[in-house]
Structures are given as C-alpha cells and as structure tokens.
Amino acid sequence: MNTRPEEVSTPEPEYGADWSRWSRRVAVIILLIGGVFAATLLGSVLSNVVMALILAFALFFPVRAINQRLPFSYNLSVITVFVIYLLVSTFILVNLTTSVLPFISSLFTEGRKNTIVFLEFLEGYEPGDATILGAEGDVANFLETIYGPLSSFVRSFQFESISDALPSLIDTAGVAAGTITGAISSIFLVNLLGLLFLLEIPGMFGWWQAVIQPEYRREIAILLNRVGVVWVGFFRGQIIIAALIGFLTTIQLLVLGITGAVAIGVFTMVVSFIPLLGGFIALIAILLVTLVQGTNTLTVDPVTLITLAIVPNLIMQQIVWNFVAPKITGDAVKLPIPVIILGLIIGAQVGGLLGALLAAPVMGILRVIVEYVLRKIQGGDPYPDEPEPGWTATGWF
Fold first, then answer.
1. Cα dist. 138→130, 141, 149, 311 in Å?
2. Region 330-352 average pLDDT
3. What is the pTM of this model?
4. Which domain holds residue 177?
C-alpha cells in the first residue's frame, strides 16, 4: 500500500534588518523635528498652501462626479473641471471689472471735486465760520476745534515745486505695484498648487493603502470620512451665512433706492467669506456707493441717506455674525457656540485672517481626532457597527 509522503512546509526566514526600539524612537523624533523645520520654511507661503488645499477639496467633488458619470479618466476630469473653474472665474472677474470701473471713475471725479471744495473752504477758513454751516452753540465750538487746526495745516502745507512731491509719488507707486504683483503671484501659486494637489489625490490614496495596515484601514477610513464631513459642513455653513448677508443687504439697498443694489449685495456676499474684515469692507463699499450714486426714491439729505444705509446694515451684520453665524457654524462642526466664538478669537490672534477663517473647521477636526483617541484608549472598536466608507474600495479612481 503506497502512502503519500507528508508535505513539509519550509518556514520563511525571519527578517533580520528590523530596527531596534531605540532606533525607531530616534527616527520618530527626527521626523517630528523635520516636520517642524519644514513648517518653518513654509511659513512665508503657508497661507497659499492652505488656500490651495481648500481649493482642491472644493473642486474634488465635481471632479469625482464627472469621473463617475462620464467616460473620462480621473486626470481628464480634473483638467475639465479646472478649465471650467478658470473660465467662470475669468468671466466673473471681467464682468465685475467692467461694472466697477465706471463707478471708480465717477468716484474719483466726484471725490476730486469735493476735495477741492473742502480744501478751498479750509484755506479761507476764519474763526467763527462754523456758523456758516448752520452750527450753533456747542456744536459750533466743537467744529471750531476741528476746522481751526485743519485750516492751519492746509495753509502751511504747500510744495515749492513738483519735484518735492515726486519721491513720495514714486514710493507710493512702487508700493502699489509691489502689492499688485504679490497678489497676482499668490493667485497663480494657489491655482497651480490646487491643480497639482488634485492630480496627486490618486497617488496619495495609493500611498495610504500601502502604508496603513489592513486591520487599521477601516477605522482610519471612518476617521478621515468624519474629517471630510466637518469640512463639507463648514463650507456649507459659510455659504449660507454669506448668502444671507448678501440677500439682506440687497433688500435694504433696494428699499432705499440705491443704484447698483444687486451688485453691492453680491459684492457683500463675496467679501463676507473674509473673516473680521469682510463686514468692514462691505460697509466701505456701501458708503462709497451711497455717496456717489445717491437714491432714486427718497428725498433726504446725504447725511440721512448714509445713516440709513450704514447703521441698519451694521446692526444686521452684528446680529448675523454674533448670533446666527456661530449657531450655523457650530451645528456644522458639532461644537457649542461659546467654543466657536473663543476659537475665532484665538485663531485671529495666532493666524490673523487665515486663522480666524480656519478656526472652526480645525476645532471640529480636533474634536473628531480626540474622540477617536479616547475610544482607542478605552479599548475595543472605536466605531462599532459602522461600515467602512465606500471610497476605500479598490479601483475607486
């Protein structure tokens, strides 16, 4: 009777080049130091990198939709969406420029005329002339304390020749040219980096699949998915807040009969995405438009018209930013209103405008990470009964 010989499996040789525990710790410390050093080097362009990442995140969703619904490769979908984005941005910029240039020209013309009249008034001002403006009593005394010093300054401030003013004019032109050049360079860099980040997403996804161990992929994927939900909720909240402010501004200016109310409302909506300074910029635009364009329906003096345009809008913005916006943002990132307000203050102090803009989503992401870490410390599955997100499937791109 023939017996089949037993198969003997040859054990695989053990890998003998593993680092010791001490070497691993040293490597982690070196990586942390290198990361801090790299962040220091990126300090001058860090804001551009962050804005490029935000742009890539915003454009990724239409890219993914085209990639799924049309017979386009991922790279072709990226190029298609990016070209559409550039065309739409250029169209909006050109139309905004063509509508704003006449207003700026009118503003400079009226401003120059009013400035000349005001300077002539100051140059010929004499004590007691405040009563000519209709002021009496304490109001006249108050105006006297303002117009007197201004009149003395205007009378003493005269250039002996054009050459005296030339250096300051050249310096001002140089600063303006440098500012414009820097802004154009930043816009170009943000768009270029955004395009490159979009194109590299499949490569980063492949790297993630190769580095993360299989037993950790599900929970890490769920963690990243929750981080993405925070960003989506934040962007949706910002759009709602900006649209609300723009809509209320448009309604207010239409009621006042201000020419160009819709355009100013759209401008207010756009600048409302800028934290802290957005409302101030919008108020300046409303002030200038009211001064130059006036009203088509009301018969009031300019001071009353400016008051009716600025004061209600300022009150509305304060109500929205202090009561409505924290509620919307807090619900989006699932944080209480006091935490949102405190984070906005800290973010503005640490990172300026960019810090104030990203304070809410960063705190929301920290909340998601802390929840994950605490659940891992307690032991067990941090996300029980929660399926792995579909985007981790092979061939997703």
1. 11, 5, 18, 25
2. 83
3. 0.67
4. 45-123+159-211
